[in-house]
Design goal:
Elements: H1 2-15, E1 20-25, E2 36-39, H2 53-69, E3 73-74, E4 82-102, E5 119-139, E6 145-154, H3 161-175
Parallel strand pairs: 2-3, 2-4
Antiparallel strand pairs: 1-6, 4-5, 5-6
Helix pairs in contact: 2-3
Amino acid sequence: MKRVMVVVAAMALSACSSMKTSSDYDPAANFSDIKTYAWVEQKNQDTSYHLDGLMDQRVRAAVESQLSLKGVTQSDPQTADILVNYLTKVDKKINVDTFNTNFGYHPYYGSPWGMSGSMHTQTTVREYEVGTLILDMIDRETGKLIWRGSVADTIREKNTPEERVEVVNKAVAEMMLNYPPKPESK
């Protein structure tokens, strides 16, 4: 019985681990004219060590790869069609699962439904973190946000740099499936 509970718990946890993506855009923006981009420049020129330096490199490489696949190339910040920036956040979440189990089936004994034995309730509480990556595209000339995409997923410890790169590439690819946006037909 304990083995069944572990399998049920594992299935419940795996159902919570799918990436959730969303995007929004300015319908007045002409996305067919966008051919070049540049990263938003840092406000300060601090090029020293940063804790998230490797992840920054991974996110930028994944975004650059996706934009390249869509025909948008990197350019000088003064002449680019759009400026690109990203931010990340981590939220703590709590998952509470309660399992009720009955033991035994006896059609001639016990309750009118044939169930007998005892009722057991098991509650598990799990704290986990959800990481969100938000990607913004800004019209360089107007300074207005024209597209925002986001992807959120449960943070799992990855053991190798290759696994981290794979997760970032998959997240950015899923987020950018809806870029450029297709105008809705009326």
